Amino acid sequence: MATTNHLLTLATVTLVAGVVSVGCGKRDVSHAATKSVAPSNTSTTIADAPVAPAVEAQHGSRRVKNLDVPVLVDGEQVAVLRTGELPTQLVAHDDKKNGVEEARFYRFSEYLTAIGVDISKIKSIHLQANMDRIASIEGSELRAEPTRFVFDFLGKTNGSVKAAWDTTGMKNTFHSSEMYAVSIFVNKAAPAVSVAKSCYLVDGHCSNDLAYVEKKVPTGTRVYQDGKLVGMAKRKTLTDALVMGRDGEDAKYSVAKLAQSFGADITHAKSIELLQGDDVVARFSANEWQSAAPALSFKLPQHNHGKIRVFVPANVQATSDSPANREATISAIVIHKSSPLSTLDLSPISDDTAPQATAGMENVQGSPINPSDEGS
Fold first, then answer.
1. pLDDT band at residue 352, thresholds of 50, 70 and 90?
2. How far apart are CA 178 and CA 128, in angstroms?
């Protein structure tokens, strides 16, 4: 990784922090393409026909905290790239040769392996950036230099994920520290990327469509076991078998049964954590879980983007002068059965995370790929 790249990354971080301090709206990625993104047999670039200018993202497209970056393999979501949802076996690295003493960089190859992606089978990785641009890494490039491709977070333990590698000599030399979505192509063809525009072209326009994703990326509460995503809470997955009772008009569901419905083994877990965005707001030891699980319930309110609201016991929250059972909107449930326990500190429950938790994905649009649409 070149020193100049780190200077660029630090400059970008400073600029983003300045924009956030002003306070602006979120990125507009809701415009729909009129034609599916065309795949190629490999992630080769395509010759460019005359194109209209790219539709510029609205100013203030980022929120430093609570930005979900979906990670997809052949269009299927396998993770969300956030600090709290990183596998705990993942190790942060320094970059002393470029003057960075702090261990804050995570290697993409190690991250993908930890979430269950076979590095040896990757054809290409596409990262959606500002103004519908696409940065990319060939699978062969990743395998040849696994320590080169790293990422970190704006706040080290929270905030926006930032790509931090030099693109010199790569097949696609477009550089962006921004990531809005990570698409990995293993069994399916990677869409072609325009040479001149560094984007997917659809009818001559840059498109923000996600390959092989037919609808919007789901935004429900994620459930992880040992670093791997095993399921996501959605209203249609909440069967009568999960119901524990009612709270007024709202059904109350079992947290334990929700996790078990995805195949998670919570009976033998060493620890279970509840996350609000980047914050761990509850941590159960094995004994605490066994005690709390029979009564631990949640609701799924309307218009909550699939995020469940859990009734959290006071004893598993951060230490407080006024301990109390609290209701919290939860973005992820993290189960540690074989993986190392988290070292993140507990944070107080916030009442202001629910609307922010989906800021990165609620408008990300998908479009199914048409394999016969080659080279358009």
1. low
2. 8
- Could you tell me if residue 355 is inside a domain? no
Question: Cα(46)–Cα(189) distance, rounded to whole angstroms?
Answer: 14
Instruction: Look up residue 138 and give its two tokens.
Output: 């060939």
Give alpha helix (H) positions in the chain. 3-22, 108-114, 139-144, 255-261, 286-292
Which three-class secondary structure string do you get for 287-347?
Answer: HHHHHHHHHCEEECCCCCCCCEEEEECHHHCCCCCCCCCEEEEECEEEEECCCCCCCCCEC
- Asked whether residue 374 is domain-assigned, the answer is no
What does the alpha-carbon distance between residue 86 and residue 352 come to, in Å, rounded to a whole number?
Answer: 23
Please tell me the total count of domains within the chain.
Answer: 2
Q: Count, in order, helices (H) and strands (E) of the chain.
A: 5, 25
Separation of alpha carbons 257 and 15, rounded Å? 45
- Would you place residue 158 in the very low, low, confident or very high pLDDT band (cuts 50, 70, 90)? confident
> Is residue 66 located within the same domain as residue 199?
yes
Task: Say how far apart CA 174 and CA 270 lie, in whole Å.
Answer: 43
Q: Token digits for 366?
A: 């998908």
Q: State whether 130 and 266 are in the same domain.
A: no
d(CA 224, CA 230): 6
Encode pLDDT of 284-310 as tens digits: 999 999 999 999 999 998 878 889 999
Which pLDDT tens digit goes with each residue over 269-280? 999 999 999 899
Pairing state between β 45-46 and 193-194: parallel
Instruction: Compute how many other C-beta atoms are within 10 angstroms of the C-beta atom of residue 355.
Output: 14
Share of the chain above pLDDT 90, in %: 59
Place of tokens 């395998």: 143
Smallest Cα–Cα separation from 370: which of 205, 198, 200, 216?
Answer: 200
Q: Show the tokens assigned to 306.
A: 């699939």
Q: pLDDT tens digit string along 190-242?
A: 999 998 899 999 999 999 889 999 888 888 999 999 999 999 998 888 899 99
Q: How far is 78 from 16, CA to CA, in rounded Å?
A: 28
d(Cα 164, Cα 150) in Å, to the nearest integer?
6
**CA distance from start to end of the chain:** 35
- Single out the residue of 288, 324, 333, 278 nearest to residue 63, CA to CA: 278
